[in-house]
Design a protein that fits this description.
Length: about 230
Amino acid sequence: MDEQTAPSKPIRLANLDAIRGLGVLGIFFLNIYFMGNSFFGYAPHEIQPLSDIGILIFSNFFLEGRFFSLFAMIFGVGMLIQYQRQQMEMDTATTTQNNKHIKSRQYWLIAFGVIHAIFIFPGDILLSYGVAGLLAFRYIRLSADELISKAKWFIFLSLIPIALISLMPDDQVYSRESAFFTEQLSAWTGSYSQQLKLHLSLFAYMLAVIPLTLMWYIAGLMLLGM
């Protein structure tokens, strides 16, 4: 095979990879709040030190919600680029097979997400991204204006249950000195079998939340990326 007939190697987009890496680092910083303590994240002191206040302000203004959204949009960009490249390389007869290849990546993402959520860290996003990716891929052939319109509706639909949940009263006091935090910390730093039970309960919770909120919100962001 000579150089003219040899298949060209796909060129990676360095800027896109850099943004994707930045998004992963931002999500990792936010997940630190939930690693090792409880489902409720970092427990503040009743009298917060200045360092905690400073980190909280920085997180709320520059990190919270931004890196999660950025990574979801980049995910949509990557899926569209992959789809367009394969469309250029394949004829119409192999379009169905091409679509199955892209969908299979989402199914593998879901499988790894289930394993990760149950056995390693319940704050998993792979499952949510895999399900949302399958939904977003259904609309990959739409025009830019149609994608934006569909994205707006998806995000709007996701905000309705989130708003309703936020209105529910919560009488639990969660601070470093509260009995509730001591109970949570004891459970999350106990034996692995005990933590596994907590993982399973949170995984069941995620299975209920994903089709109500996360699937629509993440898919909407992916459509914006496309």
